[in-house]
Amino acid sequence: MASRRRMLLKVIILGDSGVGKTSLMNQYVNRKFSNQYKATIGADFLTKEVQFEDRLFTLQIWDTAGQERFQSLGVAFYRGADCCVLVYDVNVKKSFDNLNNWREEFLIQASPSDPENFPFVVLGNKVDVDGGNSRVVSEKKARAWCASKGNIPYFETSAKEGFNVDAAFECIAKNALKNEPEEEVYLPDTIDVGSGQQQRSSSGCEC
Amino acid sequence: MASDSSYASPSSDEEEESAGQKPTVDVNINSIDTSLDAIENQLSSIALNAPIDDGTVSSTDYHEEPVSEIDDGSLRESVSERRRNSIGESSSSRGSGLWRNNLEVGVELEPEGDGSPSSPSSSGYAGERGSSSSAASASDTDVIREIRENGSSMGDDGVVPLDPAQAQWIRGKRHADEDDGSISWRKRKKHFFILSHSGKPIYSRYGDEHKLAGFSATLQAIISFVENGGDRVKLVRAGKHQVVFLVKGPIYLVCISCTEEPYESLRGQLELLYGQMILILTRSVDKCFEKNPKFDMTPLLGGTDAVFSSLIHSFSRNPATFLHAYTCLPLAYTTRQAAGAILQDVADTGVLFAILMCKDKVVSLVGLQKASLHPDDMLLLANFVMSSESFRTSESFSPICLPRYNPMAFLYAYVHYLDVDTYLTLLTTSSQAFFHLKECRIQIEAVLKKSNVLNEVERSLSDGGMRIEDLPVDPSANFGSLFHLNQRKIATNGTVTGVGGPAGLWHFIYRSIYLDQYVSSEFASPINHPHQQKRLYRAYQRLYASMHDKGVGPHKTQFRRDDNYVLLCWVTQDFELYAAFDPLADKGVAIRICNRVCQWVKDVENEIFLLGATPFSW
Prior knowledge:
The complex is a heterodimer.
Chain A: E1 7-14, H1 21-30, E2 43-52, E3 55-64, H2 74-78, E4 83-89, H3 93-97, H4 99-110, E5 120-125, H5 139-148, E6 154-156, H6 165-178, E7 189-190, H7 197-202
Parallel strand pairs in A: 1-3, 1-4, 4-5, 5-6
Antiparallel strand pairs in A: 2-3
Chain B: E1 17-18, H1 31-48, H2 75-92, H3 96-118, H4 126-135, H5 137-153, H6 183-187, E2 190-196, E3 201-204, H7 213-228, E4 235-238, E5 241-248, E6 251-257, H8 263-281, H9 285-291, H10 305-314, H11 320-323, E7 326-328, H12 333-347, E8 353-358, E9 361-367, H13 375-387, H14 390-393, E10 396-400, E11 409-417, E12 422-428, H15 434-450, H16 453-463, H17 483-493, E13 505-512, E14 517-520, H18 530-547, E15 557-561, E16 566-571, E17 575-581, H19 587-603, H20 605-608
Parallel strand pairs in B: 7-9, 7-14
Antiparallel strand pairs in B: 1-15, 2-3, 2-6, 4-5, 5-6, 8-9, 8-12, 10-11, 11-12, 13-14, 13-17, 15-16, 16-17
Helix pairs in contact in B: 1-2, 1-3, 2-19, 4-7, 8-10, 8-13, 10-13, 12-15
């Protein structure tokens, strides 16, 4: 028997449209890459099993659409996330500037219990493009921003070449796990017949 | 509000001929005759002259019949009155040609009903459908398309084939290797899912929950998206498939089915599934989700797969799941009294409920003071006990919650099997009561053995209860007891296999409204195979749903003829009767037989029902 149960981690991927969220996920889950851009509608859901420190995890990856018209889906999608991955395109300055908005929007909508320590991971994607010559956001700048937001782990990735993708997701799993709260003892009340519990339940006013 | 009216009534009007659909009928009591006699009346006229036009059933001249101001008490009177007329009419014109025509009426009407559900416009859910697919991505549309393909490629016989390993559910989850990518998984006729409001899977009937994490996320996305718009998704139709949603706070339940069961039935099954979860955990899980939306409750449910699987299994095999009533093991009145007396003795020492059951049938049941047990709670408790192997091997003491009694808090259940099928459950509010309850059980067991109750229980289980071939057809006969009948049966042929009842009666279920109990006849030829039994239960289920449809009901009577059966349902203030006959059965005779069944049930009620138990005041 496995000594510890399997865990399921809900991972949300956010970022401007076209930064390569779906490609990163495809590279990670299916080891595939396509140059064809295909906009995500709403969200895509993928599952990946990973083993980490002798434990088996299932990553439930929510690949969301970057377009603004899908922003209203936030509350519905973000609830109960274990980790949030922020992705930008190192060749597009705007996508980096928007990281702040994505992060804040997520914290507002998901309202995690401890926003200060909620696990984020930032990925600077498309480092392969044009041999790095079209790059406009420096690694230094990105790292500085991550440091200012509570030391968010940072990875430079290329979904196309599969560069750093596994390392990034391993960190994502690790971080999601770190945030797992101590399980409390599950101890519901016991019925107390003397104090009129029956009355209450039989009159049906608990609904 | 908008949401409440936004799903299409799945029962539509199919082939049913029910009273509520004929608004011109002003006297309810009259309805059975109106619809039934209309057919025969029309048929007799056909036999005499013209061919039937299109199967439309006209009410002809029965409104003018002076059947006015009849109250429930005299229903039987009026029914038999009309029956005599109708028998006269039909027998005068009966012939093989007539019967063929009659069958055609049933057959022709069917395609109308079949056609409408498959058309997407019948969903009435256009708004939500559109929006949920936009919310839910390529993978989601994928899934719906796949299901639709499946839907069109199978199930046209309308019969659900038996699962190859029929009893395998008891060992736990089936087909754990499957996921939403497997062809076999997609072809399953009925899926059940429980997930959390963050989209984390909690239970899936088929397949591994973790492998289905993506599918689970899709379901949550659909539900949450509609919820976000201030609405609620209840039903989505996709070809032959229905996707039924039930939201219970942070717990989402979903059924995906192509079994053609009505929406109300599937929703009722989801309610029971939720109730089963509450029985194991109480609704305190809600608090865990409030504190931590990421909360994963699967560890709390560890090892309970078999409990859920067995409940789902019973949805098409145990009428209690849709009748919301329990059934008793038939026993001589004095035997049940003896069992009740000893249970009452222990109840007086502070036991909240003492329940003696044999499989899913009640032997006796006693509650402290006014405490009363809801039939659904009994169903869920019995399922929990019977599907958990460990109860069989030793006496057990376990926290459980009765969702209809108090969903927020635990009780403690002492469970002990007295023999292979018979078990005693003692419920208490004290977590310290194990040793007291153990003593109670020893005492009860001794009395039951001494007074021969356990032997009687065993014998009743093997002899069975009401057999349709024993139905006294002579109205003046009063058999008084089931038991000498059964003995005679065994003595004469040495077998207890039924051969079918009089006038083509195949089966019946009688539900007493005051007692919250039902009794059903033993299965007999030709409903021998579990497969046929399941199909009959499904037919009853549809009947139940249509009789209790809040939109057009409540109905008093319904007569329905299709390729498989004649189904007759009769609802009064006191009881509901569901009866199945040979599809060629004569309507007037069938009504008379139903009257006989009711009389028979009354004659033997102190053997088939638990009388004088605490009144159930729900």
